[in-house]
Amino acid sequence: MNRTNATPAAGDLRRSLSSLARLVRAPNLFTAPPDVILGAVLVSGGRPSVPLSSLASVALASVLLYAAGTTLNDYADAGEDARHRPERPIPSGDVSRTRARNLGVALLCAGVVVAAAAGGPTTGLVAAALGTLVALYDGALKDTPLGFAAMGGCRGANVALGMAVVAGSPSAPTALTVPAWVYLVPVVVALYIAGVTYMAERETGAGDSRAALVGIAGVGLAVGSVVAAAATVGVDPADSATLAVAGGLLVWFAAWTGRDLLTAYADPRPGTIGPAVGTCVLGLVVLNAAVAGLLSPAWGVVAAAFVVPAVGLSSAFDVS
């Protein structure tokens, strides 16, 4: 092969892959599987009572749906990004708006199909509901007062996706045997992400400390909810594994997100709010792991492991 011809082709491929990674928010993709893991652990009361292959496939479906959401978000925000974020794939010309739309729709459909094939009809229905919320957020609800609530609903539905794969299995526990507090977890996750989204939507505006205050309130709600869940579960003080995993992860979550949120509150501007949003998005992995760790320290560690590639990629690709 002619070496001079190979080099430009290789460079074009790298640019294409880099543009795709920026379009789908590569770091964020690793925040989706912990939602599914958490949901499965919650309904199972510990180790997920489904084959690992099914759980992994549904986690993959959640990644596809997340990638669809970020891609369609950039498609919908192309005009705003041209003004405020010209370096993004669409306004920079690296990816055409039509291609982004087609890719987003394809990913959305693929996510629903994979979820249904791996988890059955119940999981497929939840995935379809999640896909609908994604489409609404990136479409009819974009730039409306309900937009941030729709994004929160997407994350709550992603946790429900993990719950559904267990609920749809032959060995599924009955609804009566699942503690009531379990069903509140997706709601807390939804509220937390709704707050983060509210803050993100004000990232490019004039400095407003109230946006950061909403994020701080979301973190407070999340931490308080985990403490309440621990009290409800009745964690044994002598259970060092649970205390170390769940407690350690919760402290990490609060300290990690709190640092950037307090900075944004003290000096609200795009340069501080943007990083705070990114930290809160990545911090959801740690929050999920802390809750999962209350019921299964081992699965809490598994969920927390996803923060490593997420943070690693965040040094090369944008999160918010």
Descriptive overview:
This protein is an all-alpha fold and 320 residues long. The chain has 14 helices and no strands. It is globular, with a radius of gyration of 20 Å.
Fourth CATH level, the homologous superfamily: UbiA prenyltransferase
Major β-sheet annotation: none
Q: Helix content range of the residues, please?
A: over 70%
CATH class reads: Mainly Alpha
Total beta strand runs: 0
Number of helices: 14
> How many domain regions?
1
Helix-and-strand structural type: mainly alpha
CATH topology: Tetracycline Repressor, domain 2
- The unreliable regions are none
Helix-strand pattern: HHHHHHHHHHHHHH
Radius of gyration: 20 Å
Strand content: under 5%
From the N-terminal CA to the C-terminal CA, the straight-line distance is 41 Å
Mean pLDDT: 91
Shape designation: globular
CATH architecture: Orthogonal Bundle
